[in-house]
Design a protein that fits this description.
Distance between the termini: 42 Å
CATH class of the largest domain: Alpha Beta
Helix content: 25-40%
Shape: globular
Number of helices: 18
Strand content: 15-25%
Number of strands: 17
Length: about 475
């Protein structure tokens, strides 16, 4: 398709170029020197391995409307929005990067099976991907003797740097601030700010973890809350004051009272889980969902034995269970770090947790914080989330909601909804509750007043959707209307 476009517009092949908004990707194999050393006596086998990697990666990039700029050994450089016009270039680059990581997992499974069959050790392939967007000059940057259709600009240099930072921050894909702004609906978490040559202010960088569906899941919402608290502590230690207020929903910061989940986080169980995750690089969403179902087996398993399993009846439609069933895979390295550093060693609450070489102190977080706990939460017991009051250095408003882990958050105003508030600064949850006030209605109403008092001026909301992914309708969506 790219060749067809250039054939139709031969003026783009002339020396020089044009300035266009673009998205650039760099993808590089990690630890390639060690891998190549293992093949030093068999160079053809190394070439075949690289071919097996670069071919499907290139196919994915081109299938997502990208252009391969060049191969540099084990590295791929690609760009979007030239020569093909692609107004959704940031979205397409993000989609391609995630598909590339999925394809890499398939390739590693094949390579592992081949190594086992041949009785030799298996060396896993891992890549780092950096993506950035911005205005670039694209065109024939070669000479009158040799054609070189490529892209130049600061945005290109930053994309290359982000690829290198993917290893530093322990994520597969790092995207720049401009890409995040152009593709805001993908599941991404802010990592840090980095200084960029030629710019006065550092730019934000993000780890891309998944697609739009992942961004809407319960698991990602919980991860985002925990990440927000740790990011606030990390930025505070660096002297960064860009975060205003913080809201935490059914979130543990102190894991000394993890509830029934503590049963699954002993050394033997976690080690066995790590071995299982190492085979695929992820914890399957079905495994995560099964663990949560076991925590409430009477309600989520045995409640359906007669009607569903024995009589073959479909369970009644229930919006909360639909969300509960929307599970997602967890990256192995992230999940292992989470279980060991938080559940097993409680490093965040103890002030021992380090991110990117920075030790985190929750007491240094002086921001106003709104914390919601749910009375029947079996995953984050409210007594545990209440401990946040004694950890953060700013003013904390704790609110106890009716409902459980999901229903306590998806808790619209209604006759059954209630929430409790208290002004007592005690660190004992039962003392706080006995002195508190119970209100009818949803905590949403209380949070709205609290948030409005700390928010800035109203601004026009950003445009939603794109040419390729148009908005389906106004919020809250047609499905609400039945």
């Amino acid at each position: 398709m790219q060749v067809t476009v250039l054939a139709a517009h031969p003026e783009r092949l002339q020396l020089g170029g044009e300035t266009r908004p673009m998205t650039i990707m760099f993808c590089d194999v990690r630890g390639f020197t060690a891998i190549s050393e293992a093949f030093k006596s068999n160079p053809p086998a190394l070439t075949k391995l690289i071919n097996r990697l670069l071919t499907p990666m290139s196919d994915i990039i081109m299938a997502h409307r990208g252009t391969i700029d060049k191969y540099m050994g084990d590295c791929i450089m690609a760009f979007w929005n030239a020569p093909l016009d692609d107004p959704d270039h940031a979205d397409d680059a993000c989609a391609a990067a995630l598909a590339m990581l999925d394809e890499l997992e398939r390739l590693n499974r094949d390579l592992g099976a081949e190594a086992a069959a041949e009785g030799r050790p298996f060396q896993r392939l891992d890549v780092g991907i950096g993506i950035n967007s911005g205005d670039c000059v694209v065109g024939n940057m070669g000479s009158t003797r040799r054609f070189d259709y490529t892209v130049l600009g600061d945005a290109v240099n930053l994309a290359s740097r982000l690829e290198g930072l993917s290893k530093t921050y322990g994520v597969g894909i790092v995207i720049g601030e401009a890409t995040r702004e152009a593709a805001p609906s993908w599941a991404a978490l802010e990592l840090d700010q980095v200084a960029v040559k030629g710019k006065r202010e550092a730019i934000r960088i993000y780890g891309l973890l998944g697609d739009r569906q992942l961004a809407l899941t319960q698991a990602f919402a919980a991860l985002s809350d925990r990440h927000a608290a740790m990011l606030a502590a990390y930025l505070t230690e660096k002297g960064d004051d860009r975060i205003g207020s913080i809201t935490l929903l059914n979130t543990l910061l102190d894991y000394s009272q993890p509830g029934v989940l503590g049963t699954f986080t002993d050394e033997k169980t976690v080690a066995r889980l790590e071995k299982q995750m190492a085979a695929k690089g992820v914890l399957e969403g079905s495994d995560m969902a099964g663990t949560f179902d076991i925590l409430r087996a009477n309600d989520l398993i045995f409640n359906y034995v007669v009607s569903n399993w024995l009589m073959g009846q479909d369970p009644p439609a229930f919006d909360i269970l639909a969300w509960n069933g929307d599970s997602t895979r967890m990256p192995a390295a992230m999940h292992s770090f989470y279980l060991r550093s938080l559940y097993m060693r409680n490093e965040l609450a103890r002030g021992d947790l380090e991110l990117a070489g920075q030790r985190l102190s929750l007491a240094s977080v002086k921001n106003d914080t709104y914390v919601v706990g749910a009375i029947n939460d079996h995953i984050v017991p409210w007594h545990g989330s209440f401990k946040t009051l004694g950890l953060l250095g700013g003013t904390v408003r704790y609110v106890l909601s009716s409902g459980g882990h999901i229903a306590g958050i998806v808790n619209p105003p209604g006759p059954k909804a209630w929430y409790e508030t208290g002004e007592d600064t005690t660190t004992d949850p039962e003392t706080w509750r006995s002195a508190g006030t119970k209100h009818s209605g949803s905590w949403w109403q209380d949070w709205t007043e609290w948030s409005d008092a700390r928010a800035g001026a109203h601004i026009k909301p950003p445009a939603m959707g794109s040419r390729r992914y148009p908005a389906l309708g106004d919020a809250p969506g047609d499905y609400v209307k039945g």
